[in-house]
Amino acid sequence: MDKIGLTYIVDDDPLYNFGAKKLLALTSFSEDASFFLNGEAAWKDFEKRIREDVVLPDAILLDINMPIMNGWQFLDRVSEANFTHPVKIFVISSSINQDEMDRAKNYPLVVDYITKPMTLDKFKFLKKRILDL
Q1: Which long-range contacts (CB under 8 A, 24 or more apart) does 91-95 make?
Q2: 21 falls within a domain
């Protein structure tokens, strides 16, 4: 991949989203980014994009603990969906629970589990990793 087109940030923490927006800009992470405060909002947008056959995200940075639809439920929905675009999902969580890390890696679309806080260096590393996949 030579560039990241669209990135989804799925996290209910407004402070994290504010920081992520700044770090995305500083690293020229992707051409576009969409922010969602829960998995349901992200899923509805993702599903609509599939239905309308428009561009899907290249990368999804997904929190686990959110209201309405959590990250696990989002992962279940995306895993059952019918699409061919190579979406790369990174679970971004403050949890260091090994069971959650292992659970995340059982989803084929999940590339990695990254612990917060997200820093400029982590965003640079993540961008390089996505582009190298």
Answers
A1: 91/62, 91/63, 91/64, 92/11, 92/61, 92/62, 92/63, 92/116, 92/118, 93/63, 93/64, 93/65, 95/64, 95/65
A2: yes
Evaluate whether residue 101 is within a structural domain.
Answer: yes
- What pLDDT score does 52 carry? 96
Residue 108 belongs to domain with CATH number: 3.40.50.2300
Radius of gyration of the chain (CA): 14
The total domain count for the chain is 1
End-to-end CA distance of the chain: 7
| 1 within a domain of the structure (yes/no) | no
Q: What domain range includes position 72?
A: 6-132
Q: Please list the residues that pair with 113 across neighbouring strands.
A: 91
Question: Residues 116, 121, 124, CA angle at the centre, nearest 5°?
Answer: 105
- The per-residue pLDDT for range 86-103, each reduced to its tens digit, is 999 999 999 999 999 999
Question: Does 124 reside within a domain?
Answer: yes
Q: Peptide bond before 117: cis, by omega within 30 degrees of 0?
A: yes
Q: How far is Cα of residue 126 from the mean position of the Cα atoms in its chain?
A: 11
Length in residues, the chain: 133
Please report, as a single letter, which amino acid is at residue 102. D
